[in-house]
Amino acid sequence: MSLRHTEVTGALEPCGSQDHPDCGIRDVLERIGDKWTVLVIAELSPGPGRFRQLQRAVHGISQRMLTLTLRRLERDGLVSRTVVATIPPQVTYALTARGQSLTQVVQTLVTWAQAHHGPIQKSRRSWDEDGQRAPQ
Prior knowledge:
Elements: E1 3-5, E2 12-14, H1 25-32, H2 35-44, E3 49-50, H3 51-57, H4 63-75, E4 79-84, E5 90-95, H5 97-130
Antiparallel strand pairs: 1-2, 3-5, 4-5
């Protein structure tokens, strides 16, 4: 969390703490930190995709949740929606330049998650079985 200089005390306080005015970090992190958002951005990073393609690729996401996630990403300017007037209409979703700027961060997160999934699962099992903290 970044630190911000306060006008009143001159001290450095964590931006977003309860007694500090919201500086926008929470608002942005709520969107990009959502698991469905991360997975949709990861799926769109190689290029545009159609709704059903995304639904098949993002395991466990419901039609409603994918619709909401795409709408939110579109609202935030991270995803564009293109409709081709055919019968039935063809709708394609793509990352905008702003959305593309997130792909490196998302890929780093995905790579980290893949590399640490096994040890995290092991720690969880140990915690659950022993009822105590697992070694780090």
